[in-house]
Amino acid sequence: xxxxxxxxxxxxxxxxxxxxxxxxxxxxxxxxxxxxxxxxxxxxxxxxxxxxxxxxxxxxxxxxxxxxxxxxxxxxxxxxxxxxxxxxxxxxxxxxxxxxxxxxxxxxxxxxxxxxxxxxxxxxxxxxxxxxxxxxxxxxxxxxxxxxxxxxxxxxxxxxxxxxxxxxxxxxxxxxxxxxxxxxxxxxxxxxxxxxxxxxxxxxxxxxxxxxxxxxxxxxxxxxxxxxxxxxxxxxxxxxxxxxxxxxxxxxxxxxxxxxxxxxxxxxxxxxxxxxxxxxxxxxxxxxxxxxxxx
Length: 295
What we know:
Layout: E1 5-6, H1 9-20, H2 25-34, H3 39-55, E2 63-64, H4 66-72, E3 86-88, E4 93-100, E5 105-109, H5 114-124, E6 129-130, E7 133-134, E8 141-142, E9 150-153, H6 160-173, E10 184-188, E11 195-198, H7 207-216, E12 219-226, E13 232-233, E14 236-238, E15 243-245, E16 252-256, E17 270-272, E18 275-277, E19 280-288
Antiparallel strand pairs: 1-2, 3-4, 4-5, 5-16, 6-9, 7-8, 9-10, 10-19, 11-17, 12-16, 12-19, 13-18, 14-15, 14-17
């Protein structure tokens, strides 16, 4: 793109309204293209506005040029995940089954032992509550039909098992133990249970998210460990990247989405497909830029 792309205030406001509702940039750009907007220009406008809003920086008013588009584009860096096909995490070695660069995704084998998976499920079952998600408008945790599961957050290092897992995951994810949010275990019990496409990072579009980012920094990476083998379904998918990962007991999916400049990766959009038979248990760890604090 060599020429400046102009846009009306109405178009700008429409894009930002939908960004604030949690709509990812890909579908927004495709909607504009379907309405007759040049496809390349639509992508440039939406991604530039989305990036500025996601980072909480100044927004373009009535147009963008090539330099602004390039500055908004996510820059992939050296991953935090250690290199090699086998990673030493202190009490075991984790095997890398797959690595992708864009988005930065890895599939890891042997993150948890079968006994640890069973123990986590047993500890969680008596304490399950309906799962929540962060409402983009308010920043509050709310129940939603977009996430049909039950879950529990363990306190950091709550007991000997959680302490061992917390330390292992910190080493595996390449960040200090203190940067980790509490381990979350989710149970997708009914056939059809799923989570809709979403990002794990926090959009600074409300006071609650702004306060959380101010305290602990942005979320930078996620690890989803699978605690059982669903009979059918339950894959984790990245719809904008064309990636699908099947759940396998003890294995994990790892991905990164925030670089050193604070840019956020739109390709990290992901979802849990419906469980078609049986049930699905997962444990999730989010890492922050700084030590995680709730207040």
